[in-house]
Amino acid sequence: MAPAKKRNVSSAKTTEQSAKTAKIDLNTKVESVLESRQNANDVFDILEFLQSEKEKEVVNAVNACSKLFCTLLEKKELFLGKLLEEEEALSGEYSAEDKYRMFMRHRYNSCVEVLLEHLDHELHGVKESALCCLMKFAAAEGQNPLEDLDWTEHYSFPRELIQAVVERLLSKTSDNSLLISRFQEFLEMEDVRYYVMSSIRESVGQVMDKSKGSLLPIYQNNVLTLMSNISVPSQESELTNFMVKQEAKHEDWKAAKLNEHKRVFERMWLGFLKYKLPSNMYKKILVILHDSILPHMSKPTLMIDFLTAAYEVGGAISLLALNGLFVLIHQHNLDYPDFYKKLYNLLEPSVFHVKYRARFFHLANIFLSSSHLPVYLVAAFAKRLARLALTAPPTALLIVLPFIYNLIRRHPSCRVLVHKPSTEDEPLEDPYLMDEEDPAKCCALESSLWEIKTLQKHYHPDVAKAALSINTPLPEQEEDINEVLEITTYELMERDLKSQIKSIPLEFEMATQLLKGGGDVLGQHFCLE
Q: What is the C-alpha to C-alpha distance for residues 6 and 278, in angstroms, rounded to an integer?
């Protein structure tokens, strides 16, 4: 085994040495190109390394290109304005200076094309180095524009390059989540974020219209990942970090105005959400909607259609839509006539087992906190929860029982569900209609909370104890259900196992000679009086 190991080490050293040699050669060629225009053709050797199959050689070539073309941009040695075809440019009547600049501008464009292709490379190291190099080019182009315009009348920003990068990040064939997370660093810059949002909106419109609205899971996931990394500052004074400064006209630039950021942010999300999405994507969006999307929109009420449609879907998606609807109802005066009817129908056995259970009960508690709700509605919720409690797990029951008690505290008229007068001739059938979807027609007020009485015989002592509270007048102080919303079965078992068992006194005098065979001792400690 020793010789094989030695060969592996030597081959690794050879590879490392060749990489170092290639790096030295590339640096030398970059310096030679920058020192003298007579060495301009050396740029082809540098670009050739970009096509290498070895990761280190490609990364070294990317770094070399970054140094070379950023320097040329700073020295303004790339041709400005509309670029002619290379053959036409070199054969035309242009000065040697212009021909050189056109030549290097063509090489720069070739480099950018290769780097954009490398954003789809199979090796992440190559993709990451290409992305960083392209963003360096964007910064250099922003400071030294390649367009021949009067920049006292126009705003300078490499929008086309940023748009090309965004289109590559939003791949239709490969998941770019890792590369997008690397790109997040550049989204901290206000102008980059502004033009990235515009580019996303344009890309989504073109791609989804071309697909005629059919699902594109990989593409849509890349879009969502990129959009989820975008957050808009809350105040205009926070817009301070820019890739490109616009000198005197900076304050008039759209990318420097918070309202414009919000407007583009809003159009980006609305443009994405108007197309059909995979069901798991609905959940991801609804989870972040209330605190990461709505606050940054200039008109959050434009989300009404999306949220109401999601609320009508049912299941976990409806549960998650509650957060966004809560924001619109309480902060933007959304009128939703059948809201409570839909909320009532969300109360199914599955609600106790979804991972969003805590969020649902927290919001339901808020929605049912108003003392102006009709008695029949509150009674319907209390009765439905009581019926579902018969088959609910202990962790859910520790939420449901205090929840019902709080409803009764807020609405004293519901006490009739607890103290229900009855006669001997009254039938034993419960008049409550569990299958009725309309809470006004379920006959909850004609029933009682006998289910809680049943739970007093529950196998779990904490549940039985909580159910016994209904036997005595409820105190006016509401119970805080937030303490039990996140409790799990594991935590409940751990709490039971750690509870100290009280020692039960069996004998007033401790036995000290029990195993010594003393008859008197045995007689003394085991006599029954």
A: 53
